[in-house]
Specification:
The complex is a heterodimer of chains A (about 450) and B (about 260). Chain A contains 19 helices and three strands. Helix content of chain A is about 65%, strand content about 5%. Chain B is built from ten helices and ten strands. Classes of the chains: A mainly alpha (about 450), B alpha/beta (about 260).
């Protein structure tokens, strides 16, 4: 027999109530603490990335007036392009030494350096830069032109504070005298830092010239891969989702397929990489390191995720809409394409963009098809080149830089991460906006 | 047309869902130009039977229908019959108003469009207007035909759904508890409408409300546990039922 409780005031909390209230308060604090830890981790991560990577967007440049002597560059004086091309970068290098000697005299710089050591503070890319310039406009020969050369990575590091007189004590690449010389050039405004668009648009450089390396070609590679993924994964994924969700009979076979799609979504990406190596490269003989192969591998990797999210979007369309369409005599296909698919489209698009973002940041499968380790120095000129000629991709390029010895590359790896994150955040923002804008409520 | 012309004739219909025997040997004759009400307690199979009449049950895989259902003497379960074509002839209105999340105009125009019933824009406009007028909603929506159908009130939505069903020029109109989600005022409007629709269609309505059945229908079928207990003129069913179960349900003793 249950007796009614004896009278107790509502103002006096019972022991059990006190325990319950304390437990709730604990849980509340725990949740807050978890969020705080999460946010501070994110803040630390972001600050680290920005402080370490922002340097890559700034580069030290040396501005020099170089006399383009006809005697060195065009001995015959014909300005014939074929003849001019015969002069290699070795023909141009001495001009830089001469330019430095002239600056030292003209501006009264005190230094014991030989002209060779002075010229060494300029990037190894300088001679090629001059040659390209002259071949573009042979009329420059015989005149004195102003060039903005990249400083080599040690001088650049000195300007950015990465290199100091103490750290280079036993360094063969740069001497204290060169730093003294650089100091005077800085004072005269000949060396200075400025925004380096070439880091975003340019190509990777050999490991002798970190100052010249850019991520542009790898961005093109990633873009080509994403095009392949979008063109293949979206139609295949949406078509198979529609079939499975709207048309397929529910039986053992479709159950089996469903379970396996879920399993595929959990397969480590490197497995898809080795699959791509075996099928696309070894059996189908597609070119190694090519974005088209990367795109195919990433398509395989993205498809299960895309199918799962598309099916979820289709499932979210209320059955009453299908009944309504069938009720007025629409066929199954008309009901699907006129009513269900348009309603599911925002969800499908969101899933696609998130799938693409995942594929964009994927590194492991690219390892096995040779996109990591390839030094992407040439900008593809045509669409087919963009797809079929070897290239790198953004995460692959970052990995490549991070493992090179020169600390200047380390800075570029962080810079690359900033660019990659900007792409990923942009894609996620688009996904969120799409979802917000087109979300239907019934 | 004689009001006693038989539009749909169901003979010995059985429906199974996997192991459940949902409809047991039901035979019923639905006259044209009148309203036939299916009443009965929840789970008695009245909705299932209604959905057999336009083969909506085909979409449920486990559902097995046997027996004959004749529309104007033609068996609708004949293998030669395309259920899609059948559903254009037998319109359906559902329990919950389910307008497409499109404009009111597009909701009503959808049927005529996919069946090619209208030649040109002006023809379609006229058809939409006619359907909305018949569904007694034209005056309320004529100025906002491009507004979304989902933005209307429940009663208005249901009338748009009726207009949508009418627009495909069906011969029979099936209504599965069309007023169960509506307030009394909207219900009264729909009931009035059903009475008018009787002039042109054979209307079959499933309802929980015995009062509604008594108000709108000429024929009533009482279902109980999958069987058709009694079928006859509404007046007779409500005043002088032959089966004690019918009497019990109508007087509120069972159900």
């Amino acid at each position: 027999m249950i007796e009614p409780n004896p009278y107790k005031s509502l103002f006096a909390a019972s022991a059990q109530n006190k325990r319950r209230a304390a437990a709730e308060k604990r849980f509340h604090r725990l949740g807050l603490a978890a969020i705080f830890v999460g946010l501070s981790m994110l803040a630390i991560l972001m600050t680290t990335i920005v402080t370490k990577g922002s340097g890559a967007f700034q580069q030290s440049f040396i501005t020099l007036d170089v006399a383009l002597l006809e005697a060195k560059l065009d001995k015959k004086g014909t300005r014939d392009l074929d003849n001019l091309k015969k002069v290699t970068t070795f023909g141009y290098a001495p001009l830089i030494k001469v330019a430095f000697e002239q600056v030292v005299v003209a501006r009264g710089i005190e230094t014991d350096l030989t002209s060779k050591d002075m010229a060494a503070i300029v990037s190894k890319s300088a001679a090629a830069q001059m040659r390209d310039c002259v071949l573009n406009d042979p009329g420059l020969i015989g005149t004195t032109a102003e060039f903005k050369f990249l400083a080599n990575s040690w001088i650049d590091g000195y300007l950015k504070g990465r290199v100091t007189r103490e750290t280079i004590a036993n360094n063969k690449n740069v001497s204290i005298a060169q730093l003294d010389f650089a100091d005077q050039l800085i004072e005269l405004g000949i060396i200075g830092k400025s925004f380096n668009i070439q880091f975003i648009l340019g190509a990777d450089a050999s490991d002798q010239r970190p100052e010249d390396a850019g991520i542009g070609v790898a961005i093109i590679g990633s873009f080509a891969m994403m095009c392949v993924v979008l063109l293949l994964a979206l139609p295949i994924g949406v078509a198979s989702s529609i079939y499975l969700e709207e048309f397929a009979p529910k039986n053992r076979l479709t159950d089996f397929i469903e379970v396996n799609i879920a399993n595929l979504a959990a397969v480590p990406s490197i497995v898809f990489g080795i699959l791509g190596l075996a099928i696309f490269i070894n059996t189908m003989h597609l070119p190694q390191s090519a974005p088209v192969v990367g795109g195919l591998v990433l398509t395989l990797m993205t498809l299960p995720t895309l199918i799962i999210s598309t099916r979820a979007a289709l499932k979210a369309v209320p059955p009453s809409i299908r009944s309504a369409a069938l009720g007025v005599g629409a066929s199954k296909m008309q009901s699907t394409f006129h009513h269900v698919l348009p309603l599911a489209a925002p969800g499908i698009l969101t899933g696609t963009i998130l799938g693409l973002a995942q594929a964009l940041g994927e590194t492991a499968p690219l390892l096995l098809i040779g996109m990591i380790g390839y030094v992407a120095t040439n900008m593809p000129e045509t669409v087919s080149q963009g797809l079929l000629s070897p290239n790198s991709a953004m995460p692959a390029q970052i990995y490549e830089w991070a493992k090179r010895a020169d600390p200047a590359f380390y800075e570029r790896a962080w810079g690359g991460i900033i660019i990659l994150l900007i792409f990923l955040v942009t894609m996620n923002l688009i996904a969120v906006t799409l979802r917000r804008r087109f979300e239907q409520r019934w | 047309m004689n009001s006693q012309t038989i539009k749909i004739s169901a003979r010995h219909v059985d429906v199974h869902y996997d192991k459940t025997h949902a409809i047991k040997d039901v035979s019923v004759e639905i006259p044209s130009n009148s309203v036939t009400a299916f009443i009965g307690p929840s789970g008695c199979g009245k909705s299932t039977f209604l959905r057999c009449l336009n083969r909506m049950n085909d979409t449920i895989e486990s559902c097995q229908v046997s027996g004959d259902i004749l529309l104007d003497g033609e068996n609708i379960y004949d293998p030669k019959v395309d259920p899609v074509q059948l559903r254009a002839k037998i319109g359906m209105v559902f329990q919950k108003p389910n307008p497409f999340p499109k404009s009111i105009y597009d909701n009503v125009a959808y049927g005529p469009r996919i069946h090619g019933l209208a030649q040109g824009k002006s023809d379609l406009d006229a058809l939409v207007e006619q359907a909305l007028r018949r569904a007694a909603i034209w005056e309320e929506v004529k100025d906002r035909l491009s507004a979304p159908g989902t933005g209307l009130s429940g009663g208005q939505q249901q009338r748009v759904c009726i207009a949508r069903a009418i627009a495909t020029a069906p011969e029979v109109l099936l209504m599965d508890e069309p007023c169960s989600a509506l307030d009394p005022i909207a219900t009264a409007q729909i009931e009035e409408l059903i009475d008018e629709l009787r002039q042109n269609y054979a209307v079959v309505i499933v309802t929980h409300s015995m009062h509604q059945a008594a108000r709108v229908s000429q024929k009533t079928a009482f279902f109980h546990m999958g069987t058709l207990v009694e079928f006859g003129d509404t007046k007779t069913i409500f005043t002088n039922p032959t089966d004690p179960r019918t009497e019990g349900y109508i007087t509120g003793r069972i159900g």
